[in-house]
Amino acid sequence: MKKALYRKRICAEKEKLTPEKVFHTPQYRDLLTSIGHEITGGKLTTLRLYDDKNSGIAGWNQGETVAVNLGNQITSSFLTLELKSDSLIGILGHECGHYRYTDSALRKRYAEHMLNGTGIQRSQYRKMHRKKRHWMR
Questions:
Q1: Of 56, 58, 32, 57, residue with least CA distance to 46
Q2: How far separated are the first and last CA of the chain, in Å rounded?
Q3: Strand pairing partners for 66?
Q4: SS3 of 66, please?
Q5: What is the mean pLDDT of residues 18-28?
Q6: DSSP per residue over 15-40, as a string?
Q7: Structural contact between residues 47 and 66, judged by C-beta atoms closer than 8 angstroms
Q8: What pLDDT is attached to residue 131?
């Protein structure tokens, strides 16, 4: 009897939880920071969490910063807090993958060459790519 009443009270409290009450807490930030450090091999320096429901961006990374939009449309489409949390962790993992493995300088240079109508010579690309692979080890 007590067990059933206890379970009913827990369910009632869980129903009161909102994404804002869970995802905007220091404890959730600490969880995502810890996961981000693991994914990046301890190299993540800045994790930015923000809530912009009107943005079409789920997350991004730039230099030393990885950012996750807590109010992104993908995460908002899930019905339960557990699935929403899984979505945010997935977005974090995706952005941390870019942080760790995307050579942003090479990407920027490549884009500049494309806009100018020139290309990067294959030998230049290979030379720059080898440097990036060495850094990842």
A1: 32
A2: 58
A3: 47, 61
A4: strand
A5: 93
A6: HH--HHHHHTSHHHHHHHHHHHHHHT
A7: yes
A8: 53
Which contacts qualify for 105-111: CB closer than 8 Å, 24 or more apart?
106/132
Q: Tell me how many degrees the CA angle 5-7-10 measures, rounded to the nearest 5.
A: 110
Percentage of the chain exceeding pLDDT 90? 53
DSSP secondary structure letter of residue 121: -
The answer to whether the predicted template modeling score (pTM) of the entire model surpasses 0.70 is: yes
Q: Which parts of the chain are beta strand (E)?
A: 46-50, 59-62, 65-69
Cα–Cα distance, 118 to 54 (Å, whole number): 37
CA–CA dist 134, 22 (Å, integer): 40
Burial of 88 per CB tally in 10 Å (0-12, 13-18, 19+): buried
